[in-house]
Amino acid sequence: MKDPIRSLEFKENKLFLIDQRFLPGKFETFVCSNFREAEFAIAKMVIRGAPAIGVTAAYGVVLAALEFMEFPRHKFFSELQKACYILSKSRPTAVNLTWSITRMQSLIDQDSEPKQIFERLKFEADKISAEDVMTNKLIGKIGNSIVPQKSNILTHCNTGSLATVEYGTALGVVRSAFASGKAIHVFVDETRPRLQGAKLTAWELAQEGIPATLIADNAAASLIKNNRIDLILVGADRIATNGDSANKIGTFMLSEIAKSYNTPFYIVAPTSTFDFNLGSGNSIEIEERDPTEITHINGMQIAPNDFNVYNPAFDITPASNITAIITEKGIIKPPFIKNIK
Ligand code: MRU
User: Please, what are the domains in the chain?
Assistant: First the structure.
């Protein structure tokens, strides 16, 4: 089996990202030399997926410290804090972004020299990045325990190496099950409107020879009804303390169908995706993206001029639709309010 790819790499004081806007047609690298380029990469989805944007933002803070190193001391600190704020606003829904920036900000102390702070920040970003890979491998191993020896798995969006630093969350469980010799087949939702399933998940699975079939999102219901899906594995962008989970638009619909037909529905996510300040999913901010994601496909207009569009990027799956949440610390089963604590 081929090694999974890495979505990002920091070397020679630059951040190198696989440009996910052009896969699978073109494999290009997007280079961030300053924090504004890291912000652009997150906002424009050069890189996407909750854990991956968290790590990109951490390196964005490192780039900012480097840029401002020669500034007068007070300006170094004020510009660095401004950069943290700007990076934290680059996308609203995934909590991993603010989680990693808060972790970086805790290392910025006014008593240290800018160079010391830069080195500390770089060390921490490398640590967050390495932890992500270890966490995913652990999630994969733990998650493999719920995958039957022979099974058809449905997944939505992209939760693989491209959505993390390497290996993936829900797709990490798939990788782990495949590597352990299980006879799995993955049904991949194309994931309109940005097609992360078709463009990214299918690409990752093909690279590693994992048996898979691509489906239109609207084909999932009949597959579930006809007993052709044994379990559903999806990721999350933010999980409230009652288990309500924000994930790619369409996840909620999938969870409703799964519930109707008693198909196990798992959320797979690191503990950095939990928002311990939220009691429920009601107040999770849902990002709304550009209408052209719906009205155009590859630059070609497919809807009438100026037609009204509603384009939320995420939805909330209620805890009551979730069989269990698979994390690096174990599998959390209902009652979530008690067990997440
Ligand atoms: O808009 P995206 O592509 O960033 O959305 C990604 C998802 O919804 C993923 O399922 C989620 O971030 C988990 S990735 C391990």
Answer: 8-137 (1.20.120.420), 143-340 (3.40.50.10470)
